[in-house]
Fold this sequence. Notes:
- Two copies of one chain form a homodimer.
- In chain A, strands 7-6-8-9-10-11 form a six-stranded parallel β-sheet, with helices on both faces. The first copy, chain A, has a five-stranded parallel β-sheet with strand order 2-1-3-4-5, with no helix packed on it.
- The two termini of chain A are about 20 Å apart.
- By secondary structure, chain A is of the alpha/beta class.
- Chain A folds into two domains: about 5-105 and about 285-329, 3-Layer(aba) Sandwich (Rossmann fold), CATH 3.40.50; about 105-280, NAD(P)-binding Rossmann-like Domain (Rossmann fold, 3-Layer(aba) Sandwich), CATH 3.40.50.
- Chain A has helices at about 45, 60-65, 90-95, 105-120, 125-135, 155-170, 190-195, 215-220, 240-245, 290-305; strands at about 15-20, 35-40, 50-55, 75-80, 100, 150-155, 170-175, 200, 225-230, 255, 275-280.
- In chain A, strand 3 (about 50-55), helix 2 and strand 4 (about 75-80) form a beta-alpha-beta unit.
- The first copy, chain A, has ten helices and eleven strands.
- In chain A, helix 4 crosses helix 6 (about 155-170).
- Chain A is elongated and about 70 Å long.
- Chains A and B meet through helix 4 and helix 5 of A and helix 4 and helix 5 of B.
Amino acid sequence: MTDASKTREDGETTLLVLDADPPPRLGGLTGRTRILHGDESTFASQLPLADVLLVWDFLSDAVRRAWPGEGPRPRWVHTASAGVDHLMCPELAASDTVVTNARGIFEAPIAEYVAGLVIAAAKDFYGTNELQRQRRWRHRETRRVAGTRAVVVGSGPIGRSIARTLEALGVTVAVTGRRARPGVHGPQDLPPLLARADWVVSAAPLTDATRGMFDARAFDTMNPSAYFINVGRGRLVVEADLLAALAGRWISGAALDVFEQEPLPPESPLWDVPGLIVSPHMSGDVVGWRDELGSQFLELYDLWESGKPLPNVVDKDVGYVPTHDPSHD
Amino acid sequence: MTDASKTREDGETTLLVLDADPPPRLGGLTGRTRILHGDESTFASQLPLADVLLVWDFLSDAVRRAWPGEGPRPRWVHTASAGVDHLMCPELAASDTVVTNARGIFEAPIAEYVAGLVIAAAKDFYGTNELQRQRRWRHRETRRVAGTRAVVVGSGPIGRSIARTLEALGVTVAVTGRRARPGVHGPQDLPPLLARADWVVSAAPLTDATRGMFDARAFDTMNPSAYFINVGRGRLVVEADLLAALAGRWISGAALDVFEQEPLPPESPLWDVPGLIVSPHMSGDVVGWRDELGSQFLELYDLWESGKPLPNVVDKDVGYVPTHDPSHD
């Protein structure tokens, strides 16, 4: 890490921020660091000047597009997101550059969000809302949450946080990951788990191994009463297959917080599919989240500057922070 | 209890059922008991014939109206509900008749329902639903649930179950009851608790002491960011005052599952108040609830017939099962 913290030429570190609105609060770096702010139009030309890159605009794929170009590259890239799929490319993966993510910020909020979606579906909150709109008093019987079964696909900190929260509500939860380990099922267990789950929660990183994993075959494996929730990445799901599964009642309903294309365009057929809840990629974003992301970067910057090991280091070959990283377990 | 289990005249017990659709499954009593089925029109004339009364229609006030009339009265009344406000009258309270309720059936489902309403409000699920209807992608920041504060008004099994479930989500919960005791605040603590609560949950029995307790003064005491949930009884709330509180933004929103008048008539102004969720008295009613209520009555009937003590005995003076009843704690 000490090598990586060396500055490019004149003793001052250059931090490039791929900006978004609102920008990060980096007052803590005043006088310590030269800060360049870039956007998608300026980014490629600024990239060779940077010792450190902060990917504040986590919706942009400017990093992935610019990285393979000419010139020096930053030795540390931090992204203000849990997923790194928007920035990874083979050249970055093969480089010595350290990539860190925002592990620790989104886990608990996303877990609450998923728990809310589960209860809302079990109790038919949206059906009640529609009946209220029609001024109709129609008593129905709803489902218990305790005693149901969930499978959470994704054994990173977000998936495990979701599992803990659902378990607190009495749900029996199985977590699946890339490889079996204590408390985590391997991929070979997924089909039987899907077949008997009441709730299927997608919280996996987007990698070559997970892209499109929720396809017609997966939905066909699920129970007709199953409810599908995606808070991971849009491209984990083959959206056309999900629409077919909902139309054919292979599953009972679904809630998507992430999409193949974001923002979801107004003309998308996903907006008004019966039984499908659409939310604008906000499950982890609670009041103050941007400040938390900014503070987290400043903490990591202090470590980096003093040559100490960084937490939240992404395994660039698999595309996420390995869970055996002891720093946040 | 042995006295109470004596039958009226011929050695056979007469069970009167104040019926509702669907009726209870009482096959377990075949050959043991004479069963009369009554409705609101026949009930008063049948009441003197009954040794035991099962109030299956828990929406009817036929018991309260007929009880003060002429003739013998049943020695045991069981209601398939948690509340007994629909059947209690001074003459029943003063009598030797034992009244039991459906304690144990509704607690956990109602707690899940309340937890779902809390998360739905914190995450603005209904706002997201409305935006989906408009095909609008509008990212917002939402609230954490963990770390917020709730006051649950009602220290019976339903209130305590709600408290446990919210605590499992990281909410700090205070429970208030008719009198202070370990873990329960007395009425004098309520105003300061209301003033700092993020969530105010009404789960009290309807008694002379609680009727209309959520009035203009109570709503005025609450924090403008507070959210009010009523799963107890409609008449705990002065509905006109709640409407004023919502219109005046004294509180941020509310969800009502119970109402002064049920079913809520189509012309009620409550149906389309901004920030008010209306549901048809269903928070405790999960699939199989009627079967559970029927089975519970049969279990109590076995005890009664063999002269054993009954659980779930209502303190008729206060209007609910006292919490020091050890049988279900």
